[in-house]
Specification:
Blueprint lengths: L14 H112 L10 E3 L16 E3 L6 E3 L4 E8 L5 E7 L4 E10 L6 E2 L4 E5 L10 E6 L7 E2 L1 H7 L5
Keywords: Coiled coil
GO molecular function, one term: metalloendopeptidase activity
Organism: Streptomyces gardneri
């Protein structure tokens, strides 16, 4: 049986075509090799670029971390400074408060002392004492006899040797200082409570009219001037400055805290 060759597209390739195909294959291989050769440096370059990029990223991360640490340190330092300022402020306020309390206490103590001093001075100025320190009465009030023009003693006599210090029995103002007739050298003082006291037979006078005197302040020296039989102090207490308004001097002094 005879075979016939297929026609058209079924026809086998010619030598030229096969050669072309072979050439094309070689070209393809060659091209592939070339491409591979070209591709390898590109790949290496890409790898290097990625490494460079990776190094840059690491550097950025490192710089960011360092910046964060610096910021954290700065924040910590700022916080420490803030706390130090707050602590110093609190200490300053505490010192100021302590100083204020100390000053207030010192002021209270000072005011208490001043009040105590004023009270002591008030008591002192309102106090009474004997006109001759440590003396005693030698002739009592209303004692009768011819020695007195009224027939009785209008005051009391205190024992006082010549030259003894005579003091005001309390606070007051001198209303008379000079010769008083039978009283000799005498002094009359209007006391702060409105009563009057008189000191007679003095050898000398040490105050003047209008002068303010205090308890225990020396006003004269005892003697025997005027109607007197010897050195002593004649003392009277009165409701007024004139003769005849006399009070019992012993009762007067005792009522004011004087013991005799």
């Amino acid at each position: 049986m005879a075979f016939t060759r297929a026609t058209g597209k079924h026809r086998g390739p010619s030598r030229m075509a096969r050669r072309s195909v072979g050439i094309a294959g070689v070209a393809t291989l060659a091209t592939t090799g070339v491409i591979g050769s070209f591709a390898s440096p590109a790949l290496a370059a890409d790898t290097d670029n990625r490494s460079a990029e990776d190094t840059g990223l690491t550097q950025v991360i490192t710089e960011d971390s360092l910046a964060d640490r610096i910021d954290a340190q700065a924040a910590a330092q700022e916080q420490e400074a803030f706390e130090a300022v707050a602590k110093e402020k609190a200490q300053a306020e505490a010192r100021a408060e302590a100083k204020r309390k100390a000053e207030a206490r010192a002021r209270e103590v000072r005011e208490e002392r001043e009040r105590a001093a004023r009270e002591a001075e008030r008591q002192r100025l309102n106090s009474f004492q004997l006109p001759v320190a440590g003396s005693y009465v030698t002739t009592g009030y209303k004692t009768g006899g011819s020695l007195w023009s009224s027939g009785s003693h209008s005051g009391i006599d205190f024992h006082a040797s010549y030259g003894s210090s005579v003091v005001s029995v309390g606070s007051g103002t001198v209303v008379e200082a000079g010769w008083g007739g039978a009283y000799g050298n005498n002094i009359v003082i209007r006391m702060n409570d409105g009563t009057y006291t008189q000191y007679g037979h003095l050898s000398s006078i040490g105050v003047y009219v209008g002068q303010s005197v205090e308890p225990g302040q020396q006003i004269g020296i005892s003697g025997s001037s005027g109607n007197s039989t010897g050195p002593h102090l004649h003392f009277e207490a009165r409701t007024g400055s004139d003769y005849g308004s006399d009070l019992n001097p012993i009762s007067y002094l005792r009522a004011r805290g004087v013991s005799l």
